[in-house]
Design goal:
CATH topology: Alpha-Beta Plaits
Protein name: GGDEF domain-containing protein
Largest sheet: 4 strands, antiparallel
Number of domains: 1
Order of helices and strands: HHEHEEHEH
Number of strands: 4
Radius of gyration: 15 Å
Low-confidence stretches: 1-5
Structural class: alpha+beta
Strand content: 15-25%
CATH architecture: 2-Layer Sandwich
CATH superfamily: Reverse transcriptase/Diguanylate cyclase domain
CATH class: Alpha Beta
Number of helices: 5
Distance between the termini: 57 Å
Mean pLDDT: 89
Length: 140
């Protein structure tokens, strides 16, 4: 007899940071989605590292950022690596305050993008809207 745990695939982990990846992030965002009409109680903060598009990020830098962000998490927050130069934190804290706290622990000129998890948006949409906010922040 096969149990559910035996049939499920292991979670996707980033090879360098050993953090959960984008698929796990989408699952967590979907689980945090409020019922229709319910208020947003969670949100996502994307932290973008400065890096020219064709320049690879070093493993040491990624590990340093992972350690700093992990150390800055408050109870109930969840951290993932969701892109080549992006990390995501799912939080119940006010998004502007959480973003400021996460920027403050890094010794880099990082940018952040945020979006609440709402009943009106699927998990992929929440992540896309936070990425748009991140892109806007990095432009100006």
């Amino acid at each position: 007899m096969t149990t559910l745990l035996q049939r499920s695939a292991p979670p996707e982990l980033d090879a360098i940071t050993l953090l959960p990846g984008r698929a796990a992030l989408l699952d967590v965002l979907a689980l945090r989605r409020p019922a229709a009409g319910g208020p947003a109680v969670a949100g996502v903060v994307l932290v973008g590292l400065p890096s020219p598009a064709l320049v690879p990020l070093g493993a040491a830098l990624l590990l340093d950022v992972t350690a700093a962000l992990s150390g800055a998490l408050v109870d109930g927050e969840w951290l993932a690596r969701c892109g080549r130069a992006e990390f995501a934190v799912v939080t119940d804290e006010p998004l502007a305050a959480a973003a400021a706290r996460l920027r403050a622990v890094l010794d880099l000129p990082v940018v952040t993008g945020t979006h609440p998890v709402t009943a009106d948006h699927a998990a992929a949409d929440v992540l896309a809207l936070a990425a748009l906010d991140l892109a806007a922040a990095s432009r100006g």
